[in-house]
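Course assignment 3, question 2. Fill in each field.
Student: A.L.
Task: Predict the tertiary structure for the chain below.
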Amino acid sequence: MSTNSAIGIVERFSGGDVTSVRGIYCHWDGYLEHVGSVLVKHYDTADKLRPLLALGDISDLRKSVGEKHSFADRHAADVNGWTTAYERDRGDSGVRARTFNAVSEFCSHYVPCGAEYLYLLDRGRWIYQAVGDDSFIQTNEACWRPLEPRIRSIELRSHCDAIDSLIDGNTSDDLGCLLAPVLESMKCAAKTLEEVCNVA
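Answer field:
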């Protein structure tokens, strides 16, 4: 089953007022650990994001916009890290990026389309919302969360789990004694980062 998401950019006047929000739909792996992580790592500026948005709606987000490839043959996309787009790679129509007058319009369009996560590049930083089971979404700017600290927290927690598995699976007390303090420090940092993310 797919996890749908929407990806967009907020354009603003120099005074800060929103001029437009441009967005696309992404069908697969819209959760923070994939789409969120790829956006933070590979599409962290407007100049990097705009070519992605120019593709229109996408099936799979990868680390680069890439080249035209067969929609059915995902091997080339996987090996090369190319995003798979509905228009470019399958010839679909009616899937170009959409432009909205406000963040609320972006939300109102993509949530009924099934987007479970909404991502916006705004003022040079990624923000996100997880829609949740009740399909309720806040359009108030203060309700959006910064994405990068959340991704760092997820990655740190993953590293903690890997070290924990190493310690549990190792018969050498030396390794356990060496890694245990590092693991505790990482867990503490992950918890602090998660608390910051929940407050922000």
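Instructor remarks: The chain has two domains: 5-143, 150-199. The helical segments are 32-42, 46-54, 74-80, 86-90, 103-110, 147-169, 173-199.
Grade: pending
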